[in-house]
Specification:
Elements: H1 3-10, E1 48-51, E2 55-56, H2 67-70, H3 75-88, E3 98-107, E4 112-117, H4 126-139, E5 153-162
Helix pairs in contact: 3-4
Length: 165
């Protein structure tokens, strides 16, 4: 070997590693399938509201009470309360069915004084409970009492049902 060949052999050789290209198979325009994603819509629930006969708080310090005054709240007033709640009641989108029972107190000026969900009778679904609670809260103030309601406040017990139809 010549000295030139020896010096060339003594030098480290440089090699380049080449990775093979990955080929991605693509379909031609005519072979491509069109995929459509269709969301199945949840049927809208029509909540129904049933107001039980309103009760009137006991008046302390009165020994006799005219039962005519305490007997009933006029149905027109109960319907007005129900209508106001229904306006603010938005159907829940979860697809859950259930009943929510509430008790609320309305003062003679129409302001909401108390609002409670009756736990032992109501669904455990938090979304339905929240929808009902917010609807009643947002409905306040209610109409003022008509002249034939002479008490300072009336307690309503109400069942609101959510059903898929």
């Amino acid at each position: 070997m010549t000295s030139a060949e020896l010096s060339k052999a003594a030098q480290p050789s440089r090699t380049k590693t080449v990775q093979p290209k990955k080929e991605i198979a693509t379909a031609s325009e005519s072979e491509r399938e069109e995929i459509k994603i269709v969301k199945k819509s949840t049927p809208e629930r029509k909540p129904s509201i049933e107001i039980k006969q309103p009760s009137i708080q006991k008046l302390e310090g009165i020994t006799s009470v005219d039962l005519k005054e305490l007997r009933f709240v006029p149905s027109s007033y109960a319907q007005a309360v129900r209508g106001k709640i229904r306006e603010n009641l938005t159907p829940a989108k979860s697809g859950v069915e259930g009943n929510v029972f509430v008790r609320f107190v309305i003062a003679s000026d129409g302001k909401l004084q108390e609002l409670n969900i009756i736990d032992e009778k109501s669904t455990r679904d938090g979304l339905l409970r929240e929808v009902v609670f917010e609807a009643i809260k947002d409905s306040s103030p209610f109409p003022k009492f008509p002249k034939d309601i002479t008490t300072p406040k009336v307690t309503f017990t109400c069942q609101i049902s959510f059903e898929n139809k």
